[in-house]
Every structure is written in C-alpha cells, then in structure tokens.
Amino acid sequence: MTGARSQIIFYTVAALIALAGLADAAYLTVTHLTGEDVVCGSGDCSVVFGSVYATVAGIPTAAFGALAYFAVFSSALLAAYGYTGARSFLTLAVAVMFGVTVWLLYVQAFILHAFCPFCLLSAALTFFLAGIIVATPSTTP
Amino acid sequence: MKRSLPFLIIAAVAVLTVGAGALLYRAKERAIAGGGVIGPSTSEVGGEPLHVRGQPRAPVTLEEFGDFQCPPCGTAAGVIGKLEQDYGPRLRVVWRNFPLAMHAHALEAALAAEAAGLQGRFWEMHDLLYQNQAAWSEASDVRTFFNTYARSLGLDVERFAKDSTSDEVKARVVSDGEHGVSRGVKNTPTFFINDREVRTAFSPERLHEAIDAALAETTSKPFGANRGLPPAKIPPGEGRK
Description:
By secondary structure, chain A is mainly α. Chain A has helices at residues 3-34, 44-49, 61-80, 84-112, 117-135; strands at residues 55-56, 59-60.
C-alpha cells in the first residue's frame, strides 16, 4: 500500500471518528440547552453538567466541542481529498483538543470527583484522533 | 465535481447536524413541558400557602421550581441545605412543584410531598424524597416507598394515602406548575432569587454569586413585593426548625 493511499485511509478514519464526536457533543449541547438530565445511569452527569466548567462565557462547553469536531471532520475530509493545507490545520486542531480534553479529565477526576460517560467517550475519541494523526504516514515521494 | 465533493459533504454534515440538533431540541422541549402534568395554562400566584423555609423577613429569597425525580434537583437539595447554613437568617427558601412529564414518578412524589404538607411535614418529606431519590425513582410501586416515609415521619398514613390522590393536592401541584409556566420556567431546577431568574445552568458557585449580589443590593424587602404579592404565609410546622 502506498503512503498516499495510507494517508487517505487514515484521514477518512479520522473524519469518521470526528463525526462520532460531533454527534456526542451535539447531543450534550442540546441536552444542556434544554436543561434536561443527561441520561448516564450514575447521576454523575448532573454534577459535571451542573458545574461551572459546563459553560464558558454562558455557552455550553459541549458546543465548543461540537465546533471542534466539525472542524476536525472538515479538515480530515479535505486532507483525504488531497488538500495539503488542511493537514496542518487538522494537526493543530487535534493538538488543541487533546490539551483541552486532558484538562477536562483533570477537572472531572480531581475537582468535581465525578465522571460523565459522554465526556469520557469524547475524550476517548479525541485520544483516538490524536493517535491517528501521529500514526498517519508523512507524504512520501 | 470531485473537487467540490468534500465541500458538499461538509455542507451536508453541517446542515444535518443543525437540523438534527433543532429536532432533538424541540422533541426534548415537548417531553419536558408535555405529558399532561403541566399544561399551557398559567397561574399568577401558584399553590398556596407557600412552602417556605427560613426567616419570613430574610433579605434574600431563593425560590426553586423543582422536580423530586430530577437528579440535578437532588444535587441542588444538598447545595441549598449548605446555603441555608452559610447564610442563616439572611436567606429563606421557597419551594414550588414543577414535575416533568419525562420523569415517571415525579408527579406522584410531588403529590406525596403535598399530602405530607397537609399534616405539617412538607419539608421533612421533601428532604426524605431527595435523600432517597435513587431508591424510589426506579421502583414500580412508589406509593409503598412514600407510605414508608410517611410512617417514619409519624404521619397518619391512611390520611396521607388518601390526600395523595385528592383533588386538592393535585390542584396545588398543577397550580405551582402553571405558575412556573407563567414565569417562563421550562426545566428543573429553575431558581429565582428575589424574583429574578438565575439564568444559567445550576451550579453551587453561581447560586452563591447570585445570593451575594442580591444581598448587596437588597434591603429587607419582603418576598413578593416586586410582584405585588403579600409576604409569604408560613403555616405551622412549615418554618425552619
């Protein structure tokens, strides 16, 4: 398999993962806006979504996540179609998301002492994305 | 065509996401407000007498529209207890029912609390319902749980069971809900501090800030003065011990 073909596969997988993240974040955003309980079984979601970390300047944190996943999806798709400029943006976006995800995991573990499964799913998807970006073969002649 | 395909896909995903989000939002709104528990009617006053805990002349009134089966309301109950300790005579708490249709037993719980209120033990039942929320929320026969709580509070259980299904108690709960609708309440918990809605997702820090701000700006104006309502009537046994 050529490097270019591998790249297309990696970027396509990244786009699909970003789509899953987009669905997760969009669901959380809508749930936050309606004020409904996030159904997660343990009740910890209430703690997470009732905390000050659930919003930034009055906007649900999940909405920023949805935007980020959409940006990643778009850039991964463009990268798969050969738009080289999209690759740098994709790497940058995933790096920022990785950092924010680590921070949010820290908040859940050490400040709120509560975990939201939907947030953990998003974290897993982001880590997966980061892994794919790192593993994507660089362009070879 | 091939060059424009990714842009078409991106646009399609954007439209689908926004569209699905809007549909989900509307569906959730309907689920929250619908179901026959709280109709579109409005009430200017709500159920009376008010359920009040704290000093009648406290400068700050924290009014909650709550649902006994809503987990964030359960979290809020603990937070409010702490706030009552922190602010002492400067804060009083008013409770209003806003049972959501999405919670199968929320209405029955509200009726149980009101039935206990008829025997002067509303707040005690309120606290028990929240402390044991996880236990009764998933039960098929919640009345057994509520009767047990009534017994533990020393209530006349037979009267309690009868009151729980009475028109008087139902009307009280519905009146609270309609009052919430008239004030723009859509979900729970919704808080008003001195009649002003706390317009953010529930958080202990935000409530602290809002109470501090109200304390800073208020004099000992009785609750309801802004809306021309009389100061709350506190029936015997309803005040904070």
